[in-house]
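Journal club side-thread
Mid-discussion, someone asked how the predicted structure for our own chain would compare to the paper's figures. Pasting it here so we can look after the session.
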Amino acid sequence: MMNFDKNSTIILGLAGLVLVVVIISSWLARRRFRRLDPRRFVSRWREIQGLCGTENTWPLAIINADKLVDDALKQSRYKGKTMGERLVGAQRDLSDNDGIWFGHKLRNKLVHEEYSNLKKKEVMKALAGFRQALRDLGALK
């Protein structure tokens, strides 16, 4: 049987604690940031870009882009009952929070209010925010 002095026991205990923290952190990181399949997201993004050709389909492009980002958030395992809650959870991981929130709020206006006065500048700003969020999440390159 080996004899350990008090210092050796403390050092072994701290080393074990550090090991447990590293293992748990690694597990949590893998749980949160699940790799997304960019091929699936790229094809859907191209469909959304195709909707930007005429003013009549701009609202549909905004709505579909918002849904695509929400799908990426869900697959990345961000928690929340709504997309807004998931965006709050992801805000530290998104480089253009103002852009994604602009797009999401514009989508909400289109769906919940009678907002039919879309401007090209608004559409472009919203889609840029959605695209950056998808890049940040690893769904687009």
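Post-session note: The mean pLDDT is 86.
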